[in-house]
Amino acid sequence: MAICITGTGLVNAPILIAAMWLAHSFKLPIMIVAVFKYLDTNFEARLSSILYLGIIVIIFSVIAVFALKKDNSQMVKNTTIE
Length: 82
Prior knowledge:
Layout: H1 2-10, H2 14-42, H3 49-67
Helix pairs in contact: 1-2
């Protein structure tokens, strides 16, 4: 995925950008199948792997809330001259 994003930034023509993302569309399903095979082999069948994925998403969301907090000291006030 990083190669496609980097490649999209390096090419100039819209056709080449579309070709980069078309190449990405072949890799994504293969990666998704690999993730689900990993979950099937490494987690119990009684507990859904979606439960584990839901917990991981919640943890990263909580981290993001604190890591991406707006810093008000960097804000520039707009002043108008009358």
